[in-house]
Protein backbone atom coordinates (compact mmCIF):
# COMPACT_ATOMS: atom_id res chain seq x y z
CA UNK A 1 0.00 0.00 0.00
CA UNK A 2 1.48 3.22 -1.04
CA UNK A 3 2.02 5.97 1.48
CA UNK A 4 0.03 9.07 1.00
CA UNK A 5 1.33 12.48 1.85
CA UNK A 6 0.50 16.15 1.45
CA UNK A 7 1.26 17.25 -2.06
CA UNK A 8 4.09 19.89 -2.40
CA UNK A 9 3.01 23.27 -3.60
CA UNK A 10 4.20 24.44 -6.99
CA UNK A 11 6.04 21.25 -7.67
CA UNK A 12 8.29 21.58 -10.71
CA UNK A 13 9.00 18.63 -12.90
CA UNK A 14 12.58 17.78 -13.74
CA UNK A 15 13.53 18.74 -17.27
CA UNK A 16 16.22 17.26 -19.43
CA UNK A 17 18.80 19.82 -20.61
CA UNK A 18 19.83 19.34 -24.21
CA UNK A 19 23.47 19.84 -23.12
CA UNK A 20 23.32 16.99 -20.67
CA UNK A 21 23.10 19.22 -17.63
CA UNK A 22 20.47 18.76 -15.02
CA UNK A 23 19.17 21.98 -13.53
CA UNK A 24 16.76 22.66 -10.77
CA UNK A 25 14.59 25.54 -11.62
CA UNK A 26 14.00 28.08 -8.94
CA UNK A 27 12.75 31.58 -8.90
CA UNK A 28 16.11 33.03 -7.82
CA UNK A 29 18.96 30.48 -8.00
CA UNK A 30 20.52 28.62 -10.88
CA UNK A 31 23.47 26.34 -10.15
CA UNK A 32 25.66 25.36 -13.08
CA UNK A 33 26.86 21.78 -12.76
CA UNK A 34 28.24 21.46 -16.27
CA UNK A 35 31.09 19.11 -17.04
CA UNK A 36 32.73 21.20 -19.75
CA UNK A 37 36.46 20.57 -20.12
CA UNK A 38 37.32 24.29 -19.72
CA UNK A 39 34.99 25.85 -17.20
CA UNK A 40 35.02 29.56 -16.54
CA UNK A 41 36.83 30.17 -13.22
CA UNK A 42 36.34 33.03 -10.76
CA UNK A 43 39.90 34.27 -11.13
CA UNK A 44 39.64 34.39 -14.90
CA UNK A 45 36.36 36.25 -14.67
CA UNK A 46 37.86 38.70 -12.13
CA UNK A 47 40.93 39.37 -14.22
CA UNK A 48 38.81 39.93 -17.29
CA UNK A 49 36.58 42.34 -15.40
CA UNK A 50 39.58 44.19 -13.96
CA UNK A 51 41.19 44.55 -17.36
CA UNK A 52 38.02 46.10 -18.70
CA UNK A 53 37.15 48.43 -15.84
CA UNK A 54 40.54 49.57 -14.40
CA UNK A 55 43.18 51.52 -16.34
CA UNK A 56 46.90 50.69 -15.91
CA UNK A 57 48.68 52.59 -13.13
CA UNK A 58 50.76 55.60 -14.11
CA UNK A 59 54.38 54.71 -13.29
CA UNK A 60 56.03 57.74 -14.83
CA UNK A 61 56.58 59.26 -11.38
CA UNK A 62 58.33 56.14 -10.15
CA UNK A 63 60.56 56.14 -13.21
CA UNK A 64 61.56 59.75 -12.56
CA UNK A 65 62.59 58.86 -9.02
CA UNK A 66 64.71 55.88 -9.97
CA UNK A 67 66.17 57.35 -13.15
CA UNK A 68 67.79 60.81 -12.96
CA UNK A 69 71.13 62.47 -13.62
CA UNK A 70 72.58 60.95 -10.43
CA UNK A 71 71.67 57.36 -11.31
CA UNK A 72 74.70 55.07 -11.65
CA UNK A 73 75.04 51.96 -13.74
CA UNK A 74 76.47 48.60 -12.76
CA UNK A 75 79.94 49.92 -13.62
CA UNK A 76 79.58 52.55 -10.86
CA UNK A 77 79.54 55.50 -13.29
CA UNK A 78 76.84 58.12 -13.74
CA UNK A 79 74.54 57.24 -16.65
CA UNK A 80 73.97 60.89 -17.53
CA UNK A 81 77.69 61.69 -17.97
CA UNK A 82 79.90 60.94 -20.95
CA UNK A 83 83.22 59.72 -19.59
CA UNK A 84 86.64 59.90 -21.24
CA UNK A 85 88.81 56.77 -21.12
CA UNK A 86 92.51 55.93 -21.23
CA UNK A 87 94.00 53.35 -23.56
CA UNK A 88 93.90 50.72 -20.80
CA UNK A 89 90.14 51.21 -20.37
CA UNK A 90 90.27 53.19 -17.12
CA UNK A 91 88.59 56.57 -16.79
CA UNK A 92 90.70 59.57 -17.76
CA UNK A 93 89.78 61.70 -14.76
CA UNK A 94 92.09 64.52 -15.89
CA UNK A 95 89.99 64.86 -19.04
CA UNK A 96 86.85 65.06 -16.89
CA UNK A 97 87.96 68.36 -15.32
CA UNK A 98 85.87 71.24 -16.64
CA UNK A 99 88.22 73.91 -18.12
CA UNK A 100 86.28 76.60 -16.25
CA UNK A 101 87.93 75.36 -13.05
CA UNK A 102 91.47 75.78 -14.44
CA UNK A 103 93.65 78.88 -14.67
CA UNK A 104 97.36 79.62 -15.33
CA UNK A 105 99.82 79.19 -12.47
CA UNK A 106 100.96 82.79 -12.14
CA UNK A 107 103.94 82.03 -9.90
CA UNK A 108 105.31 79.49 -12.40
CA UNK A 109 105.50 82.08 -15.16
CA UNK A 110 106.74 84.91 -12.93
CA UNK A 111 109.57 82.74 -11.61
CA UNK A 112 110.76 82.33 -15.22
CA UNK A 113 110.17 85.96 -16.20
CA UNK A 114 107.45 84.99 -18.63
CA UNK A 115 104.18 86.70 -19.36
CA UNK A 116 101.20 85.10 -17.68
CA UNK A 117 98.79 83.74 -20.32
CA UNK A 118 95.20 84.89 -20.33
CA UNK A 119 93.89 81.46 -21.33
CA UNK A 120 94.57 77.84 -20.36
CA UNK A 121 94.62 76.72 -23.99
CA UNK A 122 97.84 74.93 -24.87
CA UNK A 123 99.22 74.95 -21.30
CA UNK A 124 100.69 71.85 -19.69
CA UNK A 125 99.39 70.46 -16.41
CA UNK A 126 102.38 71.80 -14.46
CA UNK A 127 101.55 75.31 -15.74
CA UNK A 128 98.00 75.15 -14.41
CA UNK A 129 96.16 75.39 -11.12
CA UNK A 130 92.78 73.87 -10.32
CA UNK A 131 90.14 75.50 -8.14
CA UNK A 132 88.61 73.79 -5.11
CA UNK A 133 85.24 73.74 -6.91
CA UNK A 134 86.78 71.66 -9.69
CA UNK A 135 88.11 69.10 -7.22
CA UNK A 136 84.70 68.84 -5.54
CA UNK A 137 83.00 68.31 -8.89
CA UNK A 138 85.52 65.63 -9.82
CA UNK A 139 84.90 63.81 -6.53
CA UNK A 140 81.15 63.80 -7.21
CA UNK A 141 81.68 62.36 -10.67
CA UNK A 142 83.75 59.54 -9.19
CA UNK A 143 81.37 58.98 -6.27
CA UNK A 144 82.19 58.60 -2.59
CA UNK A 145 80.54 57.39 0.59
CA UNK A 146 82.14 59.67 3.16
CA UNK A 147 84.92 62.18 3.84
CA UNK A 148 86.65 62.25 7.22
CA UNK A 149 89.29 64.54 8.68
CA UNK A 150 91.74 63.73 11.43
CA UNK A 151 93.68 66.54 13.10
CA UNK A 152 97.28 65.41 13.48
CA UNK A 153 98.72 68.64 14.83
CA UNK A 154 97.07 71.88 15.85
CA UNK A 155 99.22 74.72 17.11
CA UNK A 156 99.12 78.48 16.81
CA UNK A 157 101.38 78.57 13.76
CA UNK A 158 101.12 74.99 12.42
CA UNK A 159 98.11 72.80 11.64
CA UNK A 160 98.36 69.35 10.02
CA UNK A 161 95.26 67.39 8.93
CA UNK A 162 94.70 63.99 7.34
CA UNK A 163 91.80 63.54 4.93
CA UNK A 164 90.32 60.07 4.36
CA UNK A 165 87.81 59.44 1.57
CA UNK A 166 85.73 56.28 1.21
CA UNK A 167 85.16 55.87 -2.54
CA UNK A 168 82.21 53.89 -3.88
CA UNK A 169 82.97 50.75 -5.91
CA UNK A 170 83.24 50.97 -9.66
CA UNK A 171 84.70 48.86 -12.44
CA UNK A 172 88.18 50.32 -11.82
CA UNK A 173 88.60 48.98 -8.31
CA UNK A 174 86.28 45.94 -8.08
CA UNK A 175 86.22 42.51 -9.66
CA UNK A 176 83.00 41.02 -11.08
CA UNK A 177 81.52 37.97 -9.40
CA UNK A 178 79.30 37.43 -12.43
CA UNK A 179 78.40 39.45 -15.47
CA UNK A 180 76.06 41.66 -13.45
CA UNK A 181 77.43 41.68 -9.91
CA UNK A 182 80.30 43.49 -8.25
CA UNK A 183 81.90 42.91 -4.86
CA UNK A 184 80.15 45.30 -2.42
CA UNK A 185 83.29 47.00 -1.18
CA UNK A 186 84.65 50.52 -0.92
CA UNK A 187 88.16 51.84 -1.45
CA UNK A 188 89.76 53.93 1.28
CA UNK A 189 92.35 56.56 0.36
CA UNK A 190 93.95 59.17 2.57
CA UNK A 191 96.45 62.00 2.31
CA UNK A 192 97.97 64.63 4.58
CA UNK A 193 98.53 68.37 4.26
CA UNK A 194 99.50 71.23 6.53
CA UNK A 195 99.06 74.97 6.83
CA UNK A 196 101.54 77.17 8.67
CA UNK A 197 102.18 80.86 9.10
CA UNK A 198 105.10 80.41 6.72
CA UNK A 199 103.16 78.93 3.76
CA UNK A 200 99.95 80.97 3.88
CA UNK A 201 99.07 84.59 3.19
CA UNK A 202 98.35 87.12 5.90
CA UNK A 203 94.59 86.56 5.71
CA UNK A 204 94.78 82.76 5.68
CA UNK A 205 96.90 82.66 8.84
CA UNK A 206 93.69 83.25 10.78
CA UNK A 207 92.12 80.08 9.34
CA UNK A 208 94.92 77.53 9.37
CA UNK A 209 92.56 74.63 10.20
CA UNK A 210 90.34 75.38 7.19
CA UNK A 211 93.28 75.84 4.83
CA UNK A 212 94.87 72.58 6.00
CA UNK A 213 91.59 70.67 5.60
CA UNK A 214 91.05 71.99 2.06
CA UNK A 215 94.61 71.16 1.09
CA UNK A 216 94.30 67.61 2.43
CA UNK A 217 91.01 67.09 0.55
CA UNK A 218 92.40 68.42 -2.73
CA UNK A 219 95.53 66.30 -2.42
CA UNK A 220 93.52 63.17 -1.56
CA UNK A 221 91.26 63.52 -4.60
CA UNK A 222 94.07 64.42 -7.00
CA UNK A 223 96.38 61.60 -6.00
CA UNK A 224 93.66 58.95 -6.03
CA UNK A 225 92.40 59.94 -9.48
CA UNK A 226 95.88 60.61 -10.95
CA UNK A 227 95.22 64.26 -11.69
CA UNK A 228 98.59 66.00 -11.79
CA UNK A 229 97.39 69.59 -11.62
CA UNK A 230 98.27 71.32 -8.38
CA UNK A 231 95.33 72.71 -6.46
CA UNK A 232 95.10 76.45 -5.92
CA UNK A 233 94.62 75.76 -2.20
CA UNK A 234 97.87 73.78 -2.06
CA UNK A 235 100.36 76.40 -3.18
CA UNK A 236 102.40 78.63 -0.86
CA UNK A 237 101.04 82.17 -1.07
CA UNK A 238 103.29 83.75 1.55
CA UNK A 239 105.89 84.90 -1.03
CA UNK A 240 108.58 83.89 1.43
CA UNK A 241 107.60 86.61 3.92
CA UNK A 242 107.08 85.48 7.54
CA UNK A 243 103.53 86.29 8.62
CA UNK A 244 104.10 86.28 12.38
CA UNK A 245 105.83 89.22 14.13
CA UNK A 246 108.06 88.65 17.12
CA UNK A 247 105.46 90.21 19.41
CA UNK A 248 103.23 87.22 18.70
CA UNK A 249 105.62 84.88 20.46
CA UNK A 250 103.68 82.39 22.58
CA UNK A 251 105.87 83.19 25.59
CA UNK A 252 105.07 86.93 25.41
CA UNK A 253 101.89 86.83 27.57
CA UNK A 254 103.71 84.86 30.28
CA UNK A 255 106.64 87.24 30.18
CA UNK A 256 104.37 90.16 31.08
CA UNK A 257 103.41 88.38 34.31
CA UNK A 258 106.98 88.24 35.63
CA UNK A 259 108.38 91.08 37.81
CA UNK A 260 110.53 92.24 34.91
CA UNK A 261 107.53 92.27 32.56
CA UNK A 262 105.39 94.18 35.06
CA UNK A 263 108.22 96.71 35.60
CA UNK A 264 108.65 97.21 31.85
CA UNK A 265 104.92 97.72 31.34
CA UNK A 266 104.78 100.14 34.28
CA UNK A 267 107.66 102.19 32.90
CA UNK A 268 106.00 102.46 29.49
CA UNK A 269 102.57 103.46 30.83
CA UNK A 270 103.39 105.58 33.88
CA UNK A 271 106.92 106.87 33.30
CA UNK A 272 106.44 107.12 29.52
CA UNK A 273 109.75 105.41 28.82
CA UNK A 274 109.91 104.29 25.20
CA UNK A 275 113.19 102.42 25.68
CA UNK A 276 115.42 100.98 28.36
CA UNK A 277 117.77 103.96 27.98
CA UNK A 278 114.90 106.21 28.99
CA UNK A 279 114.36 104.03 32.06
CA UNK A 280 118.06 104.37 32.98
CA UNK A 281 117.61 108.15 32.96
CA UNK A 282 114.83 107.65 35.52
CA UNK A 283 117.18 105.49 37.61
CA UNK A 284 119.68 108.37 37.69
CA UNK A 285 116.95 110.71 38.92
CA UNK A 286 116.04 108.18 41.65
CA UNK A 287 119.73 108.08 42.64
CA UNK A 288 119.84 111.85 42.92
CA UNK A 289 116.63 111.94 44.96
CA UNK A 290 117.89 109.06 47.08
CA UNK A 291 114.82 107.02 46.14
CA UNK A 292 116.75 104.06 44.79
CA UNK A 293 120.48 103.34 44.61
CA UNK A 294 122.14 100.21 43.25
CA UNK A 295 125.74 100.02 42.01
CA UNK A 296 124.89 97.11 39.72
CA UNK A 297 122.32 99.15 37.79
CA UNK A 298 125.06 100.49 35.51
CA UNK A 299 125.54 96.94 34.10
CA UNK A 300 121.87 96.50 33.16
CA UNK A 301 121.16 96.78 29.43
CA UNK A 302 117.61 95.35 29.29
CA UNK A 303 114.75 94.81 31.70
CA UNK A 304 115.59 91.10 31.71
CA UNK A 305 118.95 91.91 33.33
CA UNK A 306 117.26 93.29 36.44
CA UNK A 307 117.03 90.68 39.24
CA UNK A 308 113.49 89.83 40.26
CA UNK A 309 114.06 91.14 43.81
CA UNK A 310 115.23 94.53 42.51
CA UNK A 311 112.41 94.65 39.97
CA UNK A 312 109.86 94.31 42.79
CA UNK A 313 111.51 97.17 44.72
CA UNK A 314 111.40 99.40 41.67
CA UNK A 315 107.75 98.51 41.04
CA UNK A 316 106.82 99.65 44.55
CA UNK A 317 108.81 102.88 44.18
CA UNK A 318 107.23 103.77 40.85
CA UNK A 319 103.69 102.96 42.04
CA UNK A 320 104.12 105.18 45.13
CA UNK A 321 105.66 108.01 43.15
CA UNK A 322 103.40 111.06 42.75
Q: Key terms for this structure?
A:
alpha+beta, 9 helices, 30% helix, 6 strands
Total number of strands: 6
Radius of gyration: 45 Å
Oligomer: single chain
What proportion strand? Answer: 5-15%
Q: Shape from CA axes?
A: elongated
N-to-C CA distance: 158 Å
Main beta sheet, described?
A: 3 strands, mixed
* Helix run count: 9
Report the uncertain regions: 21-31, 53-64, 243-252
How is the topology of this model organized?
Elements: H1 42-53, H2 60-66, E1 102-104, H3 106-111, E2 128-130, H4 132-142, E3 144-154, E4 158-167, E5 187-196, H5 208-225, E6 230-231, H6 252-255, H7 259-269, H8 276-288, H9 308-320
Parallel strand pairs: 2-6
Antiparallel strand pairs: 1-2, 3-4, 4-5
Helix pairs in contact: 4-5, 7-9
How would you briefly describe this protein structure?
The strands form two sheets. This protein has a three-stranded mixed beta sheet. Strands 3-4-5 form a three-stranded antiparallel beta sheet. The protein is 30% helix and 12% strand. The chain has 322 residues and is of the alpha+beta class.
Characterize the structure shown.
It is elongated, with a radius of gyration of 45 Å. The chain is 30% helix and 12% strand. The chain is of the alpha+beta class. Among the domains are: 99-231, no CATH class; 252-320. It starts with 41 loop residues before the first helix and ends with a helix. The protein has helices at 42-53, 60-66, 106-111, 132-142, 208-225, 252-255, 259-269, 276-288, 308-320; strands at 102-104, 128-130, 144-154, 158-167, 187-196, 230-231. The strands form two sheets. It has a three-stranded mixed β-sheet with strand order 1-2-6. The protein contains nine helices and six strands.
Amino acid sequence: MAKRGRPRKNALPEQENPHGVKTIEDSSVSVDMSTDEHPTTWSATFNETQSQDIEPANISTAQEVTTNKYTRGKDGLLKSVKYEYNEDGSVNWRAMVDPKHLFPNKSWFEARNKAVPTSVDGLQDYQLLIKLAGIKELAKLRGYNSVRYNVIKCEKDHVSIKCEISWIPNFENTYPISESDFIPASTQFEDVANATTDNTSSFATKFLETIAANRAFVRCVRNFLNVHIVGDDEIDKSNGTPQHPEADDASEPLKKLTPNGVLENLCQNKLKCDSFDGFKDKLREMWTLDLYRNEEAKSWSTFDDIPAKEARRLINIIKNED
